[in-house]
Design goal:
By secondary structure, this protein is of the alpha+beta class. It is 19% helix and 15% strand. It contains eleven helices and 16 strands. A hairpin with an 8-residue loop joins strand 7 and strand 8. Helix 2 packs parallel to helix 6.
Length: 570
């Protein structure tokens, strides 16, 4: 997968298609010619040093750390998406840069109508957050949700809007270290991991611009977004691939989306080892079908960053975790500096087949004593998933590559040196680690279990223990079958299903051959990209109401089913 430095936009590239095609068909290990280094600076890097095709996993990991540091810099007061260089990295005095990004419901569906863009559309991007859902779904006149009983009204609105409680409707994940019952009675599921999705002003400005008014109506015939999606679908499956007729969704270079995972801290956990922030989470309201919100200070345990760069129009995908997420039943962190394989209790037996994949437990008993471990529950809505009890996470499915571990060590050293120089008392960021990064798509046939670089299983699957916890998402490739289990067979029963088929505009003008990609990149390419929204799940698949602990899986299922239909449409 050796390549070259990318310096041109679509329509201005000549003589590169064959080189990139050969790069993907050839060996999976990238040459590392010039090494970049981790820097504690507030400027978000525009691209990977050398370009996404020119260097190996080391530079991709350094890029991931440099954007992670800049995004987690204290934000400038009153200005979204901007770092305050007068504030040192590691202090917790207010929101961070990425925390001031727009919540997905502040972008799509926004106010949910053709005439009124999401708030901030008329020069008010820096307005404080305001979370407006579909009035008919949340049963309020204006789509805003009231505070729960006992939650003091007024005060600041939390920047972190945790309106997802499931992993795409496939499962829910729980932290055994947190007490099962909230002593205050305010959190109905204190162990449950909850999620927020945000995007920056680059995507927001594009979505609400008069030229691309895509903030509403993905399934409303004749709306700009529905037309753009239909235009994309009109060319899906054509050989050779061609761009769709205009208009179509093409998110600008510089688009960044962040998905984060949060939970309450447990008694005895060191709060200095976590970034903490005020979050808003949701519970069932006082009447059937209604919702209410609470706010509390929780800890960040997982963070995805996807970043569209000049050399990676398919986005660079990076995922970070808090250091001690995976623990033994006694509460001891089980991941050493090298990264061990994660297994589960009970063990899982997976088999792929043209007639349908299967996933089952070995033996008859589920994990009845999770202790302080992480554990998940599969959705009973999918016939192929073992949903009869808890499944405990003991170690990672795939090891963190040694190259990433080395960059983690470099990053922690740089953070320690910076903290000492700027008198920051025990920065929480040295307790976060990069799990992996995907700078470019490649085919599953190129995975090399002996590789410590980008061809390793860890890099191919790039699964976050807090965001893709269960087997189906932690082993994603091909597609998720109708029974909830991943499969590499296509709808016609043929093996080697190619879930990543990049049109010219998605490949920067190069003819990139179809591949079966895994992890974040493959999931977004196979669903959002194939669905016509350029790798983003935000447009057209956002929630119309916040998910609650009891109904989160059920609420997310229609979104997952729509995404799967889009994937199989082409």
């Amino acid at each position: 997968m050796t390549g070259f430095r990318w310096a041109c936009r679509r329509g201005r590239v000549a003589g590169v298609a064959a080189v990139m095609a050969l790069a993907l068909v050839g060996g999976a290990a990238l040459a590392q010619t010039h090494a970049d280094h981790v820097r504690v600076e507030p400027t978000i890097p525009a691209d990977e040093f050398g370009g996404a095709f020119d260097n190996g996993l080391q530079n991709a990991a350094v890029f991931a750390w440099n954007e992670f540091i800049a995004l987690n810099w204290p934000a400038k007061s009153g200005t979204r998406d901007s770092a305050d260089p007068t504030q040192p990295f590691g202090v917790q005095t207010g929101p961070l840069v990425w925390e001031t990004f727009r919540s997905k419901v502040e972008v799509y569906p926004g106010n949910g109508n053709a005439t009124t863009p999401p708030h901030g559309g008329a020069g008010g991007y820096n307005d404080p957050p305001d979370y407006i859902y579909d009035p008919g779904t949340v049963h309020t006149q204006d789509g805003r949700i009231a505070a729960c009983s006992g939650q003091a009204p007024g005060g600041p609105t939390a920047w972190i809007n945790l309106d997802e409680t499931s992993e795409l409707g496939v499962n829910q994940t729980f932290a055994g270290i947190v007490p099962a019952v909230d002593p205050s009675g305010r959190n109905s599921a204190p162990r449950l991991i909850r999620y927020a999705v945000k995007t920056d002003h680059v995507e927001y400005d594009y979505v609400v611009s008069p030229q691309s008014p895509y903030w509403y109506g993905a399934r409303v015939k004749g709306s700009p977004l529905a037309t753009a999606i239909a235009n994309y679908q009109s060319v899906a499956g054509k050989t050779p691939p061609v761009d769709p007729p205009a208009p179509f969704v093409e998110l600008p270079v510089g688009t960044i989306e962040v998905k984060s995972a949060w939970r309450p801290l447990a008694p005895g956990e060191n709060p200095r080892h976590f970034h903490t922030a005020l979050v808003r989470y949701y519970e069932a309201g006082p009447t059937p079908g209604s919702f209410c919100y609470r706010q509390a200070v929780w800890g960040l345990v997982g963070m995805h960053i996807i970043h569209k760069t000049e050399s990676a129009p398919w986005f660079v995908w990076a995922t970070f975790e808090q250091a001690d997420n995976v623990r033994s039943a006694a509460g001891r962190p089980v991941e050493d500096a090298e990264g061990n394989l994660r297994v589960t209790t009970p063990e899982l037996l997976y088999k792929d087949a043209a007639s349908g994949p299967s996933l089952s437990i070995l033996g008859r008993y589920y994990c009845t004593a999770p202790g302080l471990r992480l554990y998940f529950r599969e959705s009973a809505s999918f016939s192929g998933l073992p949903s009869g009890g808890d499944i405990c996470v003991d170690q990672r499915f795939s090891p963190i590559p040694s190259v990433v571990i080395a960059v983690n060590q470099e990053a922690h050293g740089a953070i320690d040196d910076y903290a000492a120089k700027h008198h920051v008392a025990e920065s929480p960021w040295r307790y976060y680690k990069l799990v992996d990064v995907q700078p470019q798509p490649f085919d599953k046939s190129q995975v090399d279990p002996a590789s410590g670089a980008n061809a390793s299983p860890g890099s191919f699957y790039t699964a976050n223990a807090m965001i893709e916890t269960d087997f189906s998402l932690g082993h994603f490739s091909g597609q998720i079958a109708a029974n909830g289990v991943p499969t590499d067979y296509g709808p016609n029963g043929q093996p080697d299903f190619k879930n990543t088929v990049l049109l010219p505009f998605q490949g920067g003008g190069a003819r990139i051959p179809p591949v079966n990609m895994g992890g974040c990149s493959g999931c977004h390419a196979g669903n959002a990209a194939a669905g016509g929204t350029d790798f983003s799940f935000i447009l057209g698949a956002s929630v119309t109401a916040p998910e609650t602990p009891a109904t989160g899986v059920e609420q997310a299922l229609p979104r997952l089913q729509r995404l799967r239909q889009l994937l199989l449409h082409r």
